[in-house]
Write a structure and sequence with these properties.
Layout lengths: L12 H16 L4 H9 L4 H13 L6 H14 L2 H16 L7 H5 L2 H17 L3 H15 L1 E3 L4 E2 L4 E2 L5 E3 L4 E2 L4 E2 L4 E3 L11 E2 L4 E2 L4 E3 L3 E2 L4 E2 L4 E2 L7 E5 L2 E6 L5 H4 L10
Parallel strand pairs: 1-4, 2-5, 3-6, 4-7, 5-8, 6-9, 7-10, 8-11, 9-12, 10-13, 12-14
Antiparallel strand pairs: 14-15
Helix pairs in contact: 1-2, 3-4, 5-7, 7-8
Catalytic activity: L-serine + acetyl-CoA = O-acetyl-L-serine + CoA
Protein name: Serine acetyltransferase
Pathway: Amino-acid biosynthesis; L-cysteine biosynthesis; L-cysteine from L-serine: step 1/2
């Protein structure tokens, strides 16, 4: 007897957890029923939910929700890495942000996560040659979330931006995997120079609130930039820098500062 083929749906533990948490949130607060159905329970996949949230948050009189939804759906269908990065970002926020108690929260409530996912669609548009649309997405993300990321910037996965107010990331900036940053961080240039002019942030870096990293300089893997610092020179891997201008003040303090989110400078660390 010939064997019949069976088709198993791919497992997606991140999405299944979000759906469970949405159901629980609905039970705890019935007034959120419409929102939870529209944002989560109505959708079959995380990709669909991300596209819906993208469209709902960025829609305006200049670009309607349906058109934005079509753009996001096309981006996710063409580049599966967008949603894979989103899953890593959700896990990063949950693991590093003490205010995050559910996987559901970044998708629904956290503008840092939402801004990064919108940037990823804009980045896809940029590299698809649709640069005016990419600029439109950048503009709307800045207006809605207070986060200004050039669509040409390259940002890895497992990114956590806490509070995410007044973030600026320039055109030629590169941000590695598993990076954490707080509000008012700037990855900018130093003037009107052209070409490659923005920072290159390594993997596992922790950037404190209000820090400015300026110019085409490299910040080594697993380093730590203290809050309020102005970094103008290269930072070696696994070091802590602080001050204006920033100087090396010691080791990073642990193997993965972006994971520990420890911003304290301690005696004996230098």
């Amino acid at each position: 007897m010939a064997k019949t083929k069976t088709h198993l749906a791919p497992l997606d533990p991140v999405w299944e957890r979000i759906r469970r948490e949405a159901t629980q949130a609905l039970q705890e607060e019935p007034f959120l029923g419409g929102m939870m159905h529209a944002c989560v329970l109505h959708h079959r996949t995380l990709e669909q939910a991300l596209a819906y949230r993208f469209a709902m948050k960025l829609a305006s009189a200049e670009m309607q929700e349906q058109l934005l939804r079509e753009i996001a759906d096309e981006a996710h269908a063409t580049d599966p890495e967008i949603a894979l990065a989103a899953r890593a970002d959700i896990a990063a926020v949950y693991e590093r942000d003490p205010a995050c108690h559910r996987f559901l929260q970044p998708l629904i409530f956290f503008k840092g996560f939402q801004a990064i996912q919108a940037y990823r669609v804009g980045h896809w548009l940029w590299h698809s040659g649709r640069r005016d649309l990419a600029y439109l997405i950048q503009m709307r993300v800045s207006e809605v979330f207070g986060v200004d990321i050039h669509p040409a910037a390259r940002i890895g996965k497992g990114i956590m931006i806490d509070h995410a107010h007044s973030i600026v990331i320039g055109e030629t900036a590169v941000v590695g995997d598993n990076v954490s940053m707080l509000h008012s961080v700037t990855l900018g240039g130093t003037g009107k120079e052209k070409e490659d002019r923005h920072p290159k942030i390594g993997n596992g870096v922790l950037i404190g609130a209000g820090a400015k990293v300026l110019g085409n300089i490299r910040v080594g893997n697993c380093s730590r930039i203290a809050a309020g610092s102005v970094v103008l020179h290269e930072v070696p891997p696994c070091k802590t820098v602080a001050g204006v201008p920033a100087k090396i003040v010691g080791e990073a303090g642990c193997d993965q500062p972006a994971m520990s989110m420890d911003h304290l400078l301690r005696r004996g660390n230098s």
